[in-house]
Amino acid sequence: MRRFTLIAVPYLWLLALFLVPFLIVLKISLSDYALSIPPYAPTLDFSAGWQGIKDLLSKLDFENYVFLTEDALYWKAYLSSLKIALISTVLTLLVGYPIAYGMARAAPEWRPTLLMLVILPFWTSFLIRVYAWMGILASEGVLYQFLSFLGIVDEPLKILSTNTAVYIGIVYTYLPFMILPIYAALEKMDDSLIEAAEDLGCSRMSAFWLITIPLSKSGIIAGCFLVFIPTIGEFVIPSLLGGSDTLMIGKVLWEEFFSNRDWPVASAVAIILLLILVIPIVLFQRNQQLQREAEG
Amino acid sequence: MKTKLMTMTAVTALVAGVAGAEEVRVYNWSDYIDESLLEKFEAETGLTLVYDVFDSNEVLETKMLAGGSGYDVVVPTGSFLQRQIAAGAFQKLDASKLPNKGNLWSVIEERTAQYDPANEYSINYMWGTTGIGVNVGKVQEILGEDAPIGSLDLIFNPENMEKLAECGVHFLDAPTEVIPAALAYIGEDPDSKDADVIEKAKPVLQAVRPYVAKFHSSEYINALANGEICVAFGWSGDVLQARDRAAEAENGVEIAYNAPSEGALMWFDQMAIPVDAPNPEGAHKFLNFIMDAENMAAASNYVYYANGNKASQEFLIEDVIGDTAIYPDEATLENLYTFSPYDPRLQRTVTRMWTEIKSGV
């Protein structure tokens, strides 16, 4: 009985917070637009009982999914989101790894403070931090003031409202998600392994490549997934920092919802996005599982 | 810790419970009221006013069509109001609770009846035009003394726009405002519901697209005021607010607004009560408060938009009532056109075209 309860709780959790919302969105994606509240038809008639459910199912179709294949906008937006997510992940890794490495190498009494500094920005609203970047990157913003004070630039910057600003925003926002797992992996590493490698004639550089990187692999993989997965569907950063030509699926979804008021098509876009994300999510889960077994 | 948490939850529930009966929740456009009026309303009625803002009709409409927004008063623009009435989103107003309704101006009521027949569901809050705001000094510096600042030629002629791009141009991110203007520019019916006619707006907009720094519906107020941009295709009162902010800052920026000579869109922002408003009683009190001549005048004097309240006109400052950019003269009034909503299929075509214009895809 206890065993059953132990299993039931997480499954109920998944059912309530994942499966039910998913089914609702799936159902809307198979419906048609209607000028009503809510703005789609048919809706489930509970009073009709089983017959109501049958009626509902008979009226659903895949029309909206067919529509998505007919317009190049959608696959271009998916591809562009994938590209932006991929580049952002690589950039975040390049910035995050040295920071995590430095933290793991720091004197043990300093580490809690450094860790705190990485987590500290979370105490401020994410939205406010993105707005702060708008102030920094604006054509005559803080960054421009600073650079022109140093005499490096003499004309207003053109960073805000471009993809460059989107990359800066994403790397900044998701950096802690990259640093923390890598730091966790590096911290557990036994320093004597490096000493042994150097004793056996390895240079510092090749010891880093041959010992440190492979041992932090699980942290790198975890960090990359934690950055990549949410970045694909990112909406706030591209809409605040990006320009009108920044094409991301999150923005397309917003437009379907708000400009076209077409909830069924918007839901279809969301379902496809979810299907695209299932692959990296499953890979991530497997990686975590393998790691747990290895540590077993 | 657990006890503390439970106490907190209980207290929050209590506060919410009490406040529920006493609150009026208003959802209005950003930068659209003299905020001292909000305090005055609370003092007069003893109700707590929760005042939230938005900057696009699309966001408001999605909340209305989702239902259960929790707002008691919302302010959609006429063409959006019409569609939301059709969807059953609003309740009819109870005239017996609105003694100030006699203050309204029949000239405006006749026009808003296009969207809300017999004005049963809404009252006019403000109205205005969509036109061109310019930083006079900069534009004349670039295009010369005789720059066509009163004509759509300024923003739809690529030759002008190419030069203006260096000082910055913003357009509203609202296809239902920009596309009619592009149609007016090429001499087509701006309110056309013919897909082939609407399609003609595309090349006009694509030709100037490279020179538009941003499509956004509220940032241009500050951008114009602080000299960051020199031209904005935007809403009349917003541009005039920018003019005021620049004057207050004494930064040497001189802003002017013109309703384009080719014709300008005239729009009406209407206050209405959602069908599921938690406090319709309080909502009526708010509408009645707004329709008070002095209150309405205070709002217009602050935001520089014309209102649909005849009785308020004696309390308007000369800067507002005497400015033809706000209260147009007869000749300009003739030149204004109104806009009615697209059906869903056409709406999709228009949104798709807008995305293509903006992002090239």
Name the descriptors.
heterodimer; A: 296 residues; mainly alpha; MetI-like fold; two-stranded antiparallel ribbon; B: alpha/beta; D-Maltodextrin-Binding Protein, domain 2; 2 domains; eight-stranded mixed beta sheet; three-stranded parallel beta sheet; 18 helices; 11 strands; 46% helix
* Unreliable runs of chain A: none
- Please tell me the overall pLDDT of chain A: 89
Question: Main beta sheet of chain B: strand number and arrangement?
Answer: 8 strands, mixed
Uncertain regions of chain B: pLDDT < 50 for 5+ in a row?
Answer: 1-20
If interface size is counted as residues with C-beta under 8 Å from the partner's C-beta, which chains form the largest one? A-B, 28 and 34 residues
Strand content of chain B: 15-25%
- DSSP helix count of chain A? 14
Question: How much of the sequence of chain A is in beta strands?
Answer: under 5%
What is the architecture of the largest domain in chain B at the second tier of CATH? Answer: 3-Layer(aba) Sandwich
> How far is the N terminus from the C terminus of chain B?
54 Å
**Main CATH class of chain A:** Mainly Alpha
Classify the fold: give the CATH topology of chain A. Answer: MetI-like fold
Number of domains of chain B: 2
Structural class of chain A: mainly alpha
Number of domains of chain A: 1
Please give the order of strands in the largest beta sheet of chain A.
Answer: 1-2
What features would you describe in this structure?
The complex is a heterodimer of chains A (about 300) and B (about 350). By secondary structure, chain A is mostly helical. In chain A, about 75% of the residues lie in helices and about 0% in strands. Chain A has helices spanning about 1-30, 50-60, 65-70, 70-105, 110-120, 125-135, 140-150, 165-185, 190-200, 205-215, 215-230, 235-240, 250-260, 265-295; strands spanning about 30-35, 40. Chain A has a two-stranded antiparallel ribbon. In chain A, helix 9 (about 190-200) runs antiparallel to helix 10 (about 205-215) and helix 11 (about 215-230) packs antiparallel against helix 14 (about 265-295). Chain A is globular. Chain B is about 45% helix and about 15% strand. Chain B has helices at about 1-20, 35-45, 55-65, 80-85, 105-110, 135-145, 155, 160-165, 175-185, 195-200, 200-210, 220-225, 235-250, 280-290, 295-305, 320, 330-335, 345-360; strands at about 25-30, 50-55, 75, 120-135, 170, 215, 230-235, 255-260, 265-270, 305, 335. In chain B, strand 1, helix 2 and strand 2 form a beta-alpha-beta unit. Chain A: This is Putrescine transport system permease protein. Chain A: Its main location: membrane. Chain A: One of its GO terms (cellular component) is plasma membrane.
